[in-house]
Amino acid sequence: MRKESMRSICAKLAQENMRDDIGKTLRLLDKMKETDPGLEVRFQCGRLKTMLWCTGKNRLDYATFGDAITFDTPYRTNLYSLPFGLFMGFNNHFQSIVLGGLLLTSEKTSDFEWAFTNFVEIMGGKAPVTMLTGTKHRWCRWHVLKNAKDRLGKVYSKHKRFKHDFNKLITDETNIPAFEKKWCELVKKYKLVKNKFLKRLFKHREKWAKPYFIRIFCAGMTSTQRSESANHMLKRYIQRAAPMHLFVAKFNEFQSDSNDQEGKEGFVTNQVNRKMRTGLPIEDHAHTIYTRAMYEKFYNELFESGKYTIKSKIGQDEYVLTDARADMEDAAAYIHVRLQGTDRVTCECGLFEHMGMLCRHALKVLVHLDRQEIPPGNILHRWTKDCVERSLSEESKSSLIVHNDKLRKKMLLDKVFEIANREATLSETAFHQAMDAITGSSSPDPVLANSDYPNILTATFTGQLQPTACPPRTILGGRPPNTGLKS
Ligand SMILES: [Zn+2]
After folding, report:
1. How many angstroms separate the alpha carbon of residue 216 from the centre of ligand 1?
2. Structural domain ending residue among the three candidates 212, 237, 253
3. 365 plus 410 within the same structural domain
4. Strand segments (E) across 78-183
5. Which of 69, 65, 129, 141 is nearest to 102 (CA)?
6. 350 Cα to the center of ligand 1, angstroms
């Protein structure tokens, strides 16, 4: 076949693909809804302005991992020039997870407000504790480091130790006065006081440096790096010039592959036995409750705790620690750890508030006191092995129950089993009441006829106001660019 005819076939196919794009998109969403009753889609209508969609899995995940989320618009589709926004979070395996997708025609404040309001509504009304958005409010640490590499290349090659010292400072230091003091010492030591890049970094330190964020809960997400990497992954799945229905379909594919990855990690967490390394009971406890990824982080802190010594004790429950190798003259080198009974331990470094994990300092004190387990007040449910199952049995169930026929039936069955397995006898009255409720002798068929409920399982989005057309195209007809077919 000649090149020209090949190209004309491709152009025809591409045009065919773009015809009735909105209709195809809506039909695809309806189809998705059939297999995923938890799917929620919201539009800003007329000619499509905004579309937000969250799958049932996104919503379940949000119930467990919605405490800290990021929102960013890292990706732009070419065909309609639509920014694509991603709500993302972190699961208990430290994997980034998608919590919702958003197609926007403009990036006005009012559009974002619409999106956030609807997102929280879809998620059952619970707003996230922390939401990191783009680079408007803070600098991405990953970018800071990348820029530093580019801008300080000469310095790096001239002073071999500088890179090491610089990285150590911005990675390890969590105390504000200590950070500022060490920064000044560092630039003096390497004669970089006048370096423009470093001056600017220091001026804006509140936008990126660790000590200023340490007490803000972020579940370990320190930057928008997560959505950056999502952008890279998305690029592999979706052609920028894809029509909307293909975009949605490919995004589904992307999500389902990510789910497979999660499944694998879950399997490893449950099946693979890890070797204890310190022999301390508290390590064993962490191993029992945490996922593999979380346990590894915990282990690292436990290991690092060995570098600290307890200097003194204030009152009954406060300990003063110091780095065994630190300069004792330095007031910033002292760290205070407080016990709150047996329930909880706090440390001024703020790591627990930041990511829900005990720090090396608190662990030093617990090991010193021969504590066998992590105090209950320091175990964040979201990092445990069974957090999803537990959430499912609690709050997310109630929000999903309206939408999910299978879940309703399963819950009913669970309850029956629970009652049947109770030691206490079932009174005759209770029996008749339950029987009446189930068989429907007191009200007309309450279980089988679900006419009282919106029948979402088979419903389409027909009831909802739907967009009438796609946004105006920025690429007109013909073969879209970047289809990979080189001419
Ligand atoms: Zn600490």
Report:
1. 15
2. 212
3. no
4. 82-90, 96-104, 130-133
5. 69
6. 6
Asked if residue 239 belongs to a domain, the reply is no
Residue 127 lies in a domain: no
The residues, ordered by sequence, that sit 6+ positions from 94 with a Cβ below 8 Å of its Cβ are 220, 293, 294, 297
Domain contains 191: yes
Task: Decide which of 212, 245, 272 is a domain's last residue.
Answer: 212
pTM: 0.69
198/158 same-domain check:
yes
Answer yes or no: do 379 and 408 share one domain: no
Please indicate, yes or no, if residue 240 is contained in any of the structural domains: no
Whether residue 166 contacts residue 190, with contact meaning beta carbons closer than 8 Å, is answered with no
358 CA → ligand 1 middle, Å: 7
Per-residue pLDDT of the chain (487 residues; tens, 9 = 90+): 677 888 888 788 777 777 888 899 999 999 998 888 889 999 988 788 899 999 988 998 998 898 888 888 777 776 787 888 889 888 999 888 899 999 888 888 888 889 999 999 999 888 887 777 654 445 656 567 667 777 888 888 888 788 888 888 887 787 888 899 999 999 999 999 999 989 988 998 887 787 877 777 777 665 545 555 666 777 788 777 788 898 899 899 888 888 888 888 888 887 777 788 899 999 999 999 999 999 999 999 999 999 999 999 999 999 999 988 766 666 557 889 999 999 999 998 888 988 899 999 999 999 999 999 999 999 999 999 888 765 555 545 555 555 555 556 656 665 676 676 666 788 888 888 888 887 765 544 444 444 333 333 333 455 567 888 888 877 554 444 443 333 3
- List residues, by chain if needed, whose CB lies under 5 Å from ion ligand 1: 347, 349, 359, 361
Tally of domains in the chain: 3
Same domain, 166 and 201: yes
Taking alpha carbons only, the member of 385, 324, 322, 370 closest to residue 348 is: 322
Ligand 1 centre to CA of 179 (Å) is 15
- Cβ burial 338-368 (10 Å sphere, 16+ → b, else e): bbeeeeebbbbbbbbebbbbbbbbbbbbbbe
Segments forming the whole domain that contains residue 370? 292-347+358-383
Same domain, 147 and 207: yes
Span from the CA of 278 to the centroid of ligand 1 (angstroms): 20
Distance (Å) from CA 327 to ligand 1 centroid: 18
